[in-house]
Amino acid sequence: MSLLQDTAEVLLEEQPVEKTLSIIELITSGGTAGIIIMILLFVLLIAAIYIYFERLFAIKAASKIDGNFMNQIKDHVSNGKIDSAQMLCAQQNSPVSRLINKGITRIGKPLEDINTAIENAGRLEVYSLEKNVSVLATISGVAPMIGFLGTVIGMILSIFEIANSGGQIDIKQLSDGLYTAMTTTVGGLIVGIVAYMAYNHLVVKTDKVIYQMEANSLEFLDHLNEPI
């Protein structure tokens, strides 16, 4: 009976213990170089998220306009109530209303001059809408490269340990370099993917506002071109 108990105890002792690794341990296991790169990637991720939501709310606010706005503008212009039309534009305070207001201030001049003034104002509005969006594109390209930099550093550390092991490879020291290589690659790709998706979503939203600006500007110019 004692022999069976001893055998069972030995078998229990020989069973492999399942090891778990938390995200914090995974990051810190990569050594100093890995930690520095992961901190940099984390900063880029926070910057990308901030820019995304800041621009998203700004673009949503810019796209809001009263559905009856253009009808009211055309009525005011037709009745010669230029001041009332400008006051209505000021109340709306949107890219579309600012473009229309720019055109209203040029009423009485040739239609080509009015069109040019609206186009110039439109470029400024588009520039304002796209503020910092290019930073997201930069982050989406830079983050994976920073991750790959960590990969190269990790592999160099591993090769250095192998070269200086004298035939006795220390698996612990070798694993530090491999952790650096793998964790930074994954981190860089995640940040790059998030920034890329955020950038493309903002581009789509911005294009919708630009289309709205162009459609309302053309409607305004067509109204001015109608015979009295």
Automatic annotation (TrEMBL):
The keyword Cytoplasm does not apply. Its main location: membrane. Residues 92-214 form the MotA/TolQ/ExbB proton channel domain. Keywords: Cell membrane, Membrane, Protein transport, Transmembrane, Transmembrane helix, Transport. The chain crosses the membrane at residues 33-53, 133-157, 177-199. It comes from the Bacteria. It is found in: Cell membrane; Membrane. It is a multi-pass membrane protein. Signal peptide: none annotated. One of its GO terms (cellular component) is plasma membrane. GO terms for biological process: protein import. Pfam families: MotA_ExbB (PF01618). Belongs to the exbB/tolQ family. This is MotA/TolQ/ExbB proton channel family protein.
